[in-house]
Prior knowledge:
Distance between the termini: 128 Å
Mean pLDDT: 81
Largest sheet: none
Helix content: 55-70%
Low-confidence stretches: 195-201
Oligomer: single chain
Strand content: under 5%
Amino acid sequence: MTVVIIFPVQNTTSPRPLPRSLILSILIGILLMVVLSMVPSGFFAWLWEKLNVFATVFLGIFVEAIPYLLLGTLASGLVEVFMDRDQMSKWISHRPIAAAVGGAFMGLVFPVCECGVVPLTRRLFNKGLPLSAGISFLLAAPVLNPIVVFSTAAAFGWGNMLFWRMGISLVIAIVVGLVFSVEKDSANVLRPVLNLSHEHDHTPEANASIAEKFRQALLITADEFFEMGRYLILGAMLAAGLQTFIAQSSLLAIGSGPVLSVLVMLVLAILLSICSTVDAFVALGFMGTFSFGSVLSFLVFGPMVDIKSVIMYLQVFRRRSVTYLVAIPFMMSLLAGILFNYFQP
Length: 345
């Protein structure tokens, strides 16, 4: 008789490991529980309050700027459809000094703030506007346009503040335009995307009717409005975030002295990112705390450089060019404010 002994066969396969995603989710959940247990009880109330402030500031900046962005893009569409390079050559000289001065005074014609002037300047460059004229127009138009002139006069009267704001802004715009006139190749200053050849479908035929030309201008307006609008949103969000989480009282507390007060007001001009059409009324509230020179520097520098305008500059100019567009007006505004603080009686 044969005895057969059967030995149990052991399973040599190892147990299937847990998925990495599940392990990671568990670890993140544990980490969140630990972090939340360490958060003070009033943190979420504080965070909710800050988010409300952020939303309020963001909407204030956005709603304030959006009409002027629309106005600027509309002017851009009209320039594209109704203006050609020959007309631009007749109106604006190509000599550096004359071009810079002419570009600065173009701001008296176009009622655009720092948001609307960027797409309009880009379109004018594409139409053959000299580089020095375009830079001067870009910096001067947000201050010299009729709306800002009357709003500044309404806040401060037809006196020294209005006169010096217009005069110093004009000088800075012309100087920066002349600095850029040294560069003979605009490709070293402007981004390649400035070539707006993708919009040729919107260009009407030469014999098109006025109604057709206006329709094409509105199509270009819509394209540029949505293109530049996203950068306006991003800039408004950054400005709102900085205003929400950086206390202005901290800046105001150190804003004493003829030099430090000007620096503080220049920083506030960047952080607040107020539209140039209403910034005079905000600056009026600082007159009891800050000197004439520091408030003047705020009114001169703010329309030229703030968070949202810098982000929009980066869509038109190369980064090195944007550095000059920020640094030169900053240094000249700082110098002007300090001189007024020391020498104004």
